[in-house]
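A.,

Following up on our hallway conversation. Structure tokens first:
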């Protein structure tokens, strides 16, 4: 569906659901949206989000019937993959990753943006996954506790690698000049919503 996110055109969610792994997850916008969908009985969201608590259940769910969506978009688009999940959540089987990347490989008129808080899994599977040039891989850096993700991103063999420092919760000590050889793009932003923390 068309996205209100400033750095993309569309979102594509063949996987939904997630589990908090670090401070950047505390006020997750997707968690709030998913819980709202669950309360309305919108397809599959009750399986991954609790409408009573407003929280993720901690699991992720692969929805194969959503695989064909990018094939319907003939004109080139910038597509954020799994805005309502993390594609590299441990519940997403390797077979699902292969199918999702197969669709991305086939629809190479698009640019795909895959953002994960689990870059270590990308490193583990990239040998057989074969990331095509039009698939961007990024990771989230919200504070200094998760700077290890930058080094994991360095190990990923993708033509475009990016950082999302959103929500940026503190000054981070990453030397971007040092990493300019492999970081192609940086997103910086703060939290929004009633419980937002200062940037």
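Then the amino acids I'd put at each of the 199 positions:
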């Amino acid at each position: 569906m068309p996205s209100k996110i400033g750095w993309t055109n569309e979102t594509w969610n063949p996987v939904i659901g997630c589990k908090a792994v670090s401070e950047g997850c505390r006020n997750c916008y997707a968690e709030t949206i998913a819980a709202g969908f669950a309360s309305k009985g919108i397809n599959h969201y009750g399986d991954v989000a609790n409408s009573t608590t407003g929280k993720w259940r901690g699991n992720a769910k692969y929805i194969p019937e959503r695989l064909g969506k990018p094939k319907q978009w003939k004109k080139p688009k910038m597509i954020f993959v799994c805005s309502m999940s993390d594609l590299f959540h441990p519940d997403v089987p390797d077979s699902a990753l292969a199918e999702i990347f197969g669709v991305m490989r086939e629809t190479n008129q698009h640019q795909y943006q895959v953002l994960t808080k689990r870059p270590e899994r990308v490193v583990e599977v990239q040998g057989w996954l074969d990331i095509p040039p039009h698939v961007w891989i990024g990771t989230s850096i919200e504070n200094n506790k998760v700077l290890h993700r930058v080094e994991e991103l360095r190990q990923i063999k993708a033509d475009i690698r990016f950082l999302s420092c959103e929500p940026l919760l503190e000054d981070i000590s990453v030397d971007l000049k040092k990493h300019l050889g492999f970081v192609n793009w940086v997103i910086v932003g703060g939290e929004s919503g009633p419980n937002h923390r200062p940037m």
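The helical segments are 29-39, 69-72, 94-106, 119-129, 148-154, 176-179. Curious whether your intuition agrees with the design.

B.
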